Amino acid sequence: MDRAAEPRPGWTFLTNHSRVLAAIAADHTTRVRDIAVRCRLTERAVQKIIADLEDGGYLTHVKEGRSNVYRIASATALRHPADAPASVADLLALLAQHDVERPEATPAGTDEEHRPGTTP
Q1: Which of 74, 99, 107, 115 qualifies as a cystine partner to 25, CB 3.0-4.6 A?
Q2: How many whole angstroms separate alpha carbon 53 and alpha carbon 15?
Q3: How far apart are CA 27 and CA 108, in angstroms?
Q4: Residues 6 or more apart in contact with residue 56 via CB below 8 angstroms
Q5: Mean pLDDT score, 37-42
Q6: Mean pLDDT of 20-47
Q7: 78: how many CB neighbours lie within 10 A of its CB?
């Protein structure tokens, strides 16, 4: 029963960008290799998505030794106008509710002061 569902051809409900962002939210020190495995993507695809997220202002990273530590701009609005006024924090909270491996609804590496329900 622990097997992951097989991918289905055609469209999906979530984009690869949201999957990568959720993987980073689950562990802000995760490696590109681990994100690729979790999201069933190539490492090159994950690198491109991380660059897109950084260019869009949704993500930053700092080097700590040989590792990257990611920080999610959780107060940033989602890109599509139909998603307004939802923020990245809203999306991650929704995804965290359904993540059976990490039942806590507090994604790691997010801007605490901008998360709904927290005080600055």
Answers
A1: 107
A2: 13
A3: 6
A4: 79
A5: 97
A6: 97
A7: 16
Q: How far apart are CA 29 and CA 31, in angstroms?
A: 7
pTM above 0.85, yes or no: no
DSSP symbols for 52-114: HHHHTTSEEEEEETTEEEEEE-TTSBPSSGGGTT-BHHHHHHHHHHT-SS---S--TTB-GGG
Task: Give yes or no for a contact between 70 and 60, defined as CB atoms under 8 angstroms apart.
Answer: yes
Choice between 111 and 120, residue whose per-residue pLDDT is larger:
111
Q: Please give the Cα distance from 92 to 105 (Å, whole number).
A: 8
User: Is the CA virtual torsion 32, 37, 38, 43 positive or negative?
Assistant: positive
Q: How far is CA 26 from CA 54, 94, 120, in A?
A: 17, 13, 22
Q: Structure tokens of 47?
A: 């690198």
Q: Is the pLDDT of residue 115 over 60?
A: no
pLDDT band at 99 (very low <50, low <70, confident <90, very high): low
